[in-house]
Design brief:
CATH superfamily: Aldolase class I
CATH architecture: Alpha-Beta Barrel
Number of helices: 11
Number of domains: 1
Structural class: alpha/beta
Number of strands: 14
Helix content: 25-40%
Radius of gyration: 19 Å
Order of helices and strands: EEEHEHEHEHHEHEHHEEEHEEEHH
Strand content: 15-25%
Shape: globular
CATH topology: TIM Barrel
CATH class: Alpha Beta
Largest sheet: 12 strands, mixed
Distance between the termini: 24 Å
Length: 307
């Protein structure tokens, strides 16, 4: 297993498959890829990377984008990766889940996170830039049949959807999904902007209320995030709170290494000075051992963003 200079193990790869997306979410952080990259890893290159990483104790992979399902070879990618990992998941906007949930599960996908920021059609359209709420809800219904668990990612934003938190909790209970409430996350240099001040909604008060109502509370090892089990009219539902801003505990327990869509190791979502190009080396004939050294170099560059 690989450890960084702060004693944090690296057990997860978060692989961005593309920067292309069929939605236009106005707050999207683009997985920290603040550049235009048409170059994308091939299925063979992704498989090779995951195979090499698995030898070093990295046995969990999350596929992200952009929107990963816009890649026509998404089923091939999933099928190639699965033999090397114990947990293969994906974050998606859900737009293609109605047709892809079953084939993705058959190819080897274990679970899925679906971005669902509102249950109101007008608010959903305002946030995502598309009028596809019904399509996504149908996709979630299909995903629950074949993937487990299905998590709903709700980025809570002031003046937009903060009033829907408890409605979303009920919806998660009704659909048999897990709800993740997520704070808007930005680098330090954006904190003082009008954008952040307008939309940032602190979740600490919500978390205190969840703690009061919970019949059980657990803690995840990654980020030490709390999971609250909340009673509703539709049964007990699991609610997780993701508070990354100024959260030293969150960063101290990060186990991820990111991979950009154009073949770079990236140590942190919020940093822009941490890219290590491995794809050029791969395409120039580098051995597995040489790729391992680049991966180790990236791990040693990792440091908590919030200290």
């Amino acid at each position: 297993m690989l450890y960084d200079r702060f004693g944090r193990p690296v057990t997860n790869l978060r692989i961005s498959l593309t920067q292309e997306c069929n939605f236009r979410c106005f707050f999207c952080h683009g997985e920290g890829q603040h550049f235009n990259a048409k170059l994308e890893l091939t299925p063979d290159e992704i498989e090779r990377l995951v195979r090499i990483a698995s030898r070093l104790g990295i046995n969990k992979v999350k596929l992200t984008g952009g929107e990963p399902t816009v890649r026509e070879d998404i089923l091939e990618i999933v099928g190639r990766i699965k033999p090397y990992v114990v947990d293969l998941s994906m974050t998606t906007n859900g737009s293609r889940l109605k047709e892809l949930a079953r084939p993705l599960a058959k190819a080897g996908l274990d679970r899925v996170n679906v971005s669902l920021h509102s249950l109101r059609r007008d608010v959903y359209k305002r946030i995502t830039g598309v009028d596809m709420l019904e399509t996504v809800l149908e996709g979630i219904e299909e995903a629950v049949k074949y993937l487990s668990p299905v998590k709903l990612n709700m980025t809570v934003m002031k003046g937009l959807n903060e009033g829907e938190i408890w409605d979303m909790i009920d919806f998660a209970a009704k659909t048999g999904t897990i709800l993740q409430l997520i704070e808007l996350e930005v680098p330090r240099e954006v904190e003082g902007t009008a954008f952040f001040k307008k939309y940032f909604y602190p979740l600490q008060p919500v978390e205190r209320e969840l703690e009061k109502r919970a019949v059980e509370t657990r803690e995840r090892s990654m980020h030490r995030r709390k999971k609250y089990f909340i009673p509703t009219d539709y049964g007990i539902v699991e609610v997780e709170v993701v508070r990354a801003m100024h959260n030293t505990l969150f960063c101290a327990n990060c186990t991820r290494l990111r991979v950009t869509s154009n073949g770079m190791f990236k140590t942190c979502l919020l940093r822009n000075d941490d890219l290590i190009d491995f794809l050029t080396a791969m395409r120039n004939g580098a051995s597995d051992e040489e790729i391992v050294e680049l991966l180790k170099k990236a791990v040693l560059m990792r440091e908590p963003y919030w200290k």
